[in-house]
Amino acid sequence: MHSFLHSKLLYNLDHNIKVKVNNNLSVLLAISCGQDSLCLLKLFLDIQNIINIKLGIIHIDHQFRIDSNVNTQHMQNIIKLLNTPAYIYQLKPQIYSELEFRNMRYEIYIKTASIYSYNLIATAHTATDKLETSLNNMFKGGNLDSLHSLVWKRKIYKKLDIIRPLLNFTRGEISWLCRYYSLPIWVDYTNLYYINKRNRIRHELIPYLKQYYQHNLDKQMTIFLNKTYYDMEYLRQCTIKVYYYLRHPTYIAINYKLLLTQHLALQIRVLKLFFNYNLQTKLNDTLLKKILWNLENNTTTYIESYKLTLKIYKTWLYII
Hints:
By secondary structure, the protein is an alpha/beta fold. The protein has helices at 4-16, 35-51, 68-80, 98-115, 127-139, 171-180, 197-212, 217-246, 256-259, 264-279, 285-296; strands at residues 26-30, 54-61, 86-90, 120-122, 153-157, 160-163, 253-255, 301-303, 308-313, 316-319.
């Protein structure tokens, strides 16, 4: 018997992610032994025959916990009970930053999915993860885009997309499903360490906000983030249109005279896209505003940290 969360997953795949179900559809499930991951695994296994998809499991042992080996063995025991292809990787014990971990994970995901012909990679991010990530990025001084680093679907490599089908599942719903089906959860004790600021947001800040400000915080923040997501997407589309209109047809240059007639928000976004697209370089807002100030004053800009010179000739801004 399927639960209301099975129906919710099917709805997400059809309406929010817009997955086209066909005989060639294959999904690689990126999972650990935590409750979110096992919920994702359970739901997809149950609906596999309903929508006729090929499933695979990928698990990465980061080797940064003392129980990593036992945890991986637990994962293998779960996989043995399933008739599903699985790919388990173990990283060399080393101290990595959060960004390095993330980059390595996605590199392994992409390589595995490409070799074994998967169309989609599914992760177990939930509404709670989205809330925590948005708050964390906001505290770091992020912009509108950083509030939406977790989205339903994103292309990450050629014909390969990453999807997050549990993105509107609350922690309470996940917990209920795991208890209802008695899923063999492995608790990650490092989630209790407050040296990681995100854990403090999860265990102290969010409960505090729920108790004293908004008991329905998850739902209300989801509404807020959905509204700002549409604004962000509109700005992105405007940025791309303006960039294509202003770029030089032959050289790496942009019409700065026309750029300066745009709203400041678009000026910054177009410049950021200009450098990212042509040089794979991400400049911070301070540098971008300095460049705009120099453009208004017809001044050449030299960016020492990147060894770049921005030269003005007639109406064009060139990179030298």
